Amino acid sequence: MRFVGYIAQWRSAAKEALERTAIAVKFLCCLHLTSNYLCSPCHAYGVSMLPTLNVAGDVLLADHLSPRIGNVGHGDLVLVQSPLNPRIRLTKRVVAMEGDTVTYFDPKHSEAAQVAVVPKGHVWIQGDNVYASRDSRHFGPVPYGLIQGKVFFRVWPPDSFGLLGQ
Amino acid sequence: MATSFLWNYTKKFVTASIITVTVSDRYVTVIPVRGDSMSPTFNPKSGSLMEDVFDDYVLVEKFCLGKYKFSHGDVVVFRSPLNHKETHIKRIAALPGEWFSTYHNSDVVQIPLGHCWVEGDNTASSMDSKSFGPIPLGLIRGRVTHVVWPPPRIGAVKSIPPQGLAFF
Which residues does the entry assign to the active site, renumbered to this chain (chain B) (predicted)? Predict the structure, then answer.
């Protein structure tokens, strides 16, 4: 008789555990959807985007919808996967889109300005700090498909909280 | 009473679709193969009219996107470097840092860091690295592991390196 009682208890406990798990799973799925398709925070650090972004590290908000609908243009700050190492994400500025002719200047290699044409489906990205940035001047134009998000807002440090413009 | 039934149904539908989207983005998904650039592995042109009507469907796993560790002969799904809205399915022929020469011309090219060379199995009609060069690994969106449709050809996709190519 006690055995039947135990089974009933176990069944109701299992049902409750399943319900709680379902709520957690639904929450995590919603989190995945928002952070992949809408908006997500990201942490950017390094010297290549001075003076726009600080060396010590900024927390930025990136919008993931814009690259999907093609809303990335000149002067936008973007999160892009590095073409040299797909596990690293860079924060750089889009300087030229496909079809444009870029005149760029690499202080480390030569004094003269060099010219390049951006092929179809690619963008030219550069860090704001031309003296200390590894970008399209070194690894060439990057395919648009590597762009993961457009940075539009800075959350940390608090004294520069606000929209990040052109 | 009817509205609460509709509301229930909508809730279940939304939950199911959210879970499906998450699983298909992060773990596994099933996609159709269009075109015959991967003949005879996918969409083989056998000459019989019945088979040509329907596309193959394949299982794509996304666990490889954690470490980006691929091997020669892996069939991968990637976003086209020429148009970010299109995805293609091809086989990896060479990995970063390797020297590679295609069968047709005698050029030897070194695959840059972080890039790979992809080729279709059907060399006659395939838009692949022969036209657009090595692609960054970051464009890869998953690895094809199995064919799930049509039923006669359900099975694992073998990871054999493309034929007739030499690398040093």
Answer: 37, 90
Residue A35 sits at the chain B interface (C-beta within 8 Å): no
Q: Counting every residue, how long is chain B?
A: 168
Give the residue numbers of A marked as catalytic. Answer: 48, 92
Locate all alpha helices (DSSP H) within B97-150, ordered by sequence. 129-132
Q: Which of B127, B26, B34, B139 is nearest to B81 (CA)?
A: B139
ipTM over 0.95: no
| Cβ–Cβ gap A145/B79 under 8 Å | yes
Q: Report residue A77's pLDDT band, with 50, 70 and 90 as the boundaries.
A: very high
Model's pTM, two decimal places?
0.88
CA distances from B94 to A14, A48, A124, A139, B160 (A): 51, 32, 26, 19, 12
Is B90 known to be catalytic? yes
Burial classification of residue A133, based on how many CB atoms lie within 10 Å of its CB (0-12 exposed, 13-18 middle, 19 or more buried): buried
Collect all residues with Cβ–Cβ distance below 8 Å to A15 and sequence separation of at least 6: none
